[in-house]
Amino acid sequence: GVDIHTFEKIDGSPSCPIELADPLVQLLAKHVRSQRDAFLSAQRAHQTNELKTFWLRKTRKPVLCVLMISTDHSTNTLLPSTGDSDAMEPLPHLNPIHEESYLFYRGINTEVSMPTGSLCAERCAISTAFATQLTLSRSDFVMLGVLSMAISGDSEPEDEIAMNPLGPCGACMEWLRKVAEVNPDFRIVTFTNTRCDHVFVNPVL
Questions:
Q1: What Å distances lie between residue 179 and 52, 137, 142, 158, 188, CA to CA?
Q2: How far is CA 28 from the centre of its chain?
Q3: The pTM is what?
Q4: Contacts of residue 36, Cβ cutoff 8 Å, sequence gap at least 6
Q5: Nearest Cα to Cα of residue 145 among 102, 112, 178, 111
């Protein structure tokens, strides 16, 4: 027999320049860039780590993730996107943005053993948040930023695209859908390149 599978809904909206994105998205992107810089610094110190030789030795395709958690539910509402990149204007936010009202948890994929499978960056970040805050609620989730990087030596040094924009895999989406069931405002943020200068912001459901 033939199994029929439906395609997931594809969002065809254009990317948004980061300077025109919602202030919450800009704040998340700032922390994604910080994790990117830490990763690049670790790559340069290759003699003092096992990035290539152990942690990412299977596919050598690093993925970084930052989970944004709200500690003040009056400040985590995103404004709707205009959906028109030619007519985008900076968007005022409903409330002032206070960085201290948010917590940021990093994740990175690890590929230690093929029989046990990889641990994705998204689930790593969520698990880290829960391990740190055992009272964590799904309603605390604001956004999840995902950035693909390249391993130095595996591609051109100037490679800024990597696999971006890179959304969560099927297994991670199962986790994220469970969050979005009670938190429909939860968003996934991806980037056009490792400079993080253009973003896509999409709902989970």
A1: 33, 9, 10, 36, 12
A2: 9
A3: 0.82
A4: 64, 147, 149, 194, 196
A5: 102
Closest Cα to residue 60, out of 164, 169, 148? Answer: 148
Query: Within 10 A of 69 (CB to CB), how many other CB atoms are there?
Result: 21
- HSE on the CB side for 4, CA within 13 Å? 0
CB distance 88 to 19 below 8 Å? no
Q: How far apart are CA 167 and CA 165, in angstroms?
A: 7
Q: Give the position of tokens 């959906």.
A: 83
pLDDT tens-digit profile, the chain (205 residues): 444 444 344 455 789 999 999 999 999 999 999 999 999 998 888 777 888 888 888 888 999 999 999 997 555 555 444 344 444 444 444 455 788 899 999 999 998 887 777 899 999 999 999 999 999 999 999 999 999 999 876 555 456 888 999 999 999 999 999 999 999 999 999 999 999 999 999 999 9
Amino acid of residue 12: G
11-36 exposure pattern, b = at least 16 Cβ within 10 A, e = fewer: eeeebbebebbbbbbebbbebbbebb
Q: Which two tokens stand for residue 31?
A: 């922390």
User: Alpha helices of 92-149 — where are they, by DSSP H?
Assistant: 121-132
